[in-house]
UniProtKB/TrEMBL annotation:
It is found in: Secreted, Extracellular space, Apoplast. GO terms for molecular function: manganese ion binding. The lineage of its organism: Eukaryota, Viridiplantae, Streptophyta, Embryophyta, Tracheophyta. Oxalate binds at H102, E107. It comes from Quercus lobata. One of its GO terms (cellular component) is apoplast. Its main location: secreted. Mn(2+) binds at H100, H102, E107, H146. Residues 1-17 form the signal peptide. The keyword Glycoprotein applies. Keywords: Apoplast, Disulfide bond, Glycoprotein, Manganese, Metal-binding, Receptor, Secreted, Signal. This is Germin-like protein.
Length: 208
């Protein structure tokens, strides 16, 4: 009786045990699908596990009047391989984070100042959106298109966490109009007017 129980305990323990305590990202090496390779443990310091950049407001003097300050593996090597990361979102009045996705992880947003209208679209094209106030939290499932808009008259701030150390980012508008995809092809695949496409390409830096 003791042997089977011991065997089950070993199976359970080994399936949840980490091979090593951590894998601080070696930012001098290329990042692969599994993240960065591990920094030599002898060169790891406490500063690898601390990020001090989220206390400073991001620069919202841009087209979308928004700024995201990421604390992903590339900026915060201590989270490499842990399946977590963090960030700060600043939205000036009228600011917006356009439809975008994080292909590598789900997101949780918590509002700490102002009012933010946020939402996402499911794969069934069902829309879920709500006006969030200070203390409200919303989750955006991995890979789904979502957005955030400043819904008040003053600056809004939120903090975001991700289920990945490198969640990735693709903004829909830039994917369509911020590259050299031919205008005719964009028109054929989106049903948009070519004049409007060229206008958007001009605003977002696209060509073709």
């Amino acid at each position: 009786m003791i042997l089977p129980l011991f065997f089950i305990f070993c199976l359970f323990s080994s399936s949840h045990a980490a091979v090593q305590d951590f894998c601080v990202g070696d930012l001098t090496a290329p990042q692969g699908p599994a993240g960065y390779s591990c920094k030599n443990p002898s060169k790891v310091t406490v500063n690898d596990f601390v990020f001090s950049g989220l206390g400073t407001p991001g620069n919202t003097s841009n087209l979308i009047k928004a700024a995201v300050t990421p604390a992903f593996a590339a900026q915060f090597p201590g989270v490499n391989g842990l399946g977590i990361s963090f960030g700060r979102l600043d939205l000036a009045p009228g600011g917006v984070v356009p439809f975008h996705t994080h292909p590598g992880g789900s997101e949780i947003l918590v509002v700490v100042q102002g009012t933010i209208l946020a939402g996402f679209v499911s794969s069934a094209n069902t829309v879920y959106f709500k006006s969030l106030k200070k203390g409200d939290i919303m989750v955006f499932p991995q890979g789904l298109l979502h957005f955030q808009v400043n819904a008040g008259g003053s600056a809004a701030i939120a903090f975001v966490s991700f289920s990945s150390s490198s969640p990735g980012l693709q903004i829909l508008d830039y994917a369509l109009f911020g590259n050299n995809l031919p205008t005719e092809l964009v028109a054929a695949t989106t049903f948009l007017d070519t004049a409007q496409i060229k206008k958007l390409k001009g605003v977002l830096g696209g060509t073709g």
